C-alpha cells in the first residue's frame, strides 16, 4: 500500500479572536486544515488527542507564558512551530528560535508572508503518512536503502541484506518515521528515561552509521545536530 497524505493540520494558538480567525481563514484558503485554541490549557488538551503538522503560536497567551508553552511543546513533540508575536524585542524572538521555534512573524503581518513561512517550515517536516495497519507489511525506502521492520532486514543499494538487532531496528524505525526532523535522545527512546541510557543511544547511532558506511565525523545520512539530537537526512517512502 503506497503512502497517502492528508492536507496538513495546523493548530492556531491565539487568544485574540480576530487575529486567530484571520490566520485560520488565510491558511484554509490554501487548503490547510486548522483548529483554533484561545489558551495554553486548551492547546495542550488538543495535543493529547492529535499532534498537528505545524503550530502557529502566539507568545502572549492569557494563562501561560508563551516561552514556557514553546519549551513544553518541544520537549514532547516534533511538529513544525511558527511563533507569532507582537513583541518588538529582538531578544524574545532570538530566544524563541533558540528554544526550538522554526521561524517567527511579527504582528502586524501580511497574509502572504504567513503562508510563505508556513510553507517553508512544512518543507522541513515529513507530514502525516498513513501506513499499512500490519507492521509486517511496512517497507521503507530511503537513499537507495530498503528497511523491512517486520523482519529487521536492511537491504543496501547493491542488494546486500543484513539483519539488524532489535535495538538498532527500533532506533532506525523512529528515525524513518520522522525524516529530516531533529529528534532528541528522549524522543529516540520513545519516552523512556534517558538519564541512564544517554550513551546507549550514541552507541546505537554509531552502529547504525557503520551499517551505512558513514564516517561519524562527516555523516551524511544520520546527522548529529549538536546540542539537540540526531536527524535522518533523506526522503522516506513507505509502502
UniProtKB/TrEMBL annotation:
Its main location: cytoplasm. The keyword Lyase does not apply. CDD domains: trans_reg_C. Residues 137-234 bind DNA. It holds the Pfam family Response_reg. Residues 9-122 form the Response regulatory domain. The modification 4-aspartylphosphate is found at residue 58. Keywords: Activator, Cytoplasm, DNA-binding, Phosphoprotein, Repressor, Transcription, Transcription regulation, Two-component regulatory system. The keyword Membrane does not apply. Gene3D superfamilies: 3.40.50.2300, 6.10.250.690, Winged helix-like DNA-binding domain superfamily/Winged helix DNA-binding domain. PROSITE patterns: OMPR_PHOB, RESPONSE_REGULATORY. GO terms for molecular function: DNA binding. Residues 137-234 form the OmpR/PhoB-type domain. InterPro entries: CheY-like_superfamily, OmpR/PhoB-type_DNA-bd, Sig_transdc_resp-reg_C-effctor, Sig_transdc_resp-reg_receiver, WalR-like, WH-like_DNA-bd_sf. It is found in: Cytoplasm. This is DNA-binding response regulator. It comes from Zoogloea oryzae.
Amino acid at each position: 500500500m503506497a503512502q497517502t497524505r492528508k492536507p496538513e493540520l495546523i493548530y492556531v494558538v491565539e487568544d485574540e479572536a480576530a487575529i486567530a480567525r484571520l490566520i485560520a481563514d488565510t491558511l484554509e484558503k490554501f487548503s490547510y486544515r486548522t483548529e483554533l485554541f484561545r489558551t495554553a490549557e486548551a492547546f495542550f488538551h488538543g495535543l493529547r488527542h492529535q499532534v498537528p503538522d505545524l503550530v502557529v503560536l502566539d507568545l502572549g497567551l492569557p494563562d501561560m507564558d508563551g516561552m514556557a508553552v514553546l519549551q513544553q511543546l518541544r520537549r514532547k513533540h516534533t511538529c513544525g512551530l511558527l511563533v507569532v508575536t507582537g513583541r518588538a524585542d529582538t531578544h524574545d524572538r532570538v530566544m524563541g528560535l533558540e528554544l526550538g521555534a522554526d521561524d517567527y512573524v511579527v504582528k502586524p503581518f501580511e497574509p502572504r508572508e504567513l503562508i510563505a513561512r508556513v510553507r517553508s517550515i512544512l518543507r522541513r517536516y515529513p507530514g502525516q503518512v498513513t501506513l499499512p495497519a500490519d507492521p509486517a507489511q511496512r517497507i521503507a525506502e530511503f537513499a537507495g536503502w530498503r528497511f523491512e521492520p517486520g523482519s529487521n532486514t536492511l537491504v543496501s543499494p547493491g542488494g546486500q541484506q543484513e539483519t539488524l538487532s532489535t535495538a538498532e531496528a527500533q532506533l532506525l524505525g523512529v528515525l524513518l518515521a520522522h525524516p529530516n526532523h531533529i529528534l532528541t535522545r528522549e524522543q529516540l527512546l520513545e519516552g523512556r528515561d534517558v538519564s541512564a541510557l544517554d550513551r546507549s543511544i550514541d552507541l546505537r547511532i554509531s552502529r547504525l552509521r557503520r551499517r551505512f558506511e558513514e564516517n561519524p565525523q562527516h555523516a551524511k545520512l544520520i546527522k548529529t545536530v549538536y546540542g539537540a539530537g540526531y536527524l535522518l537526512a533523506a526522503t522516506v517512502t513507505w509502502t
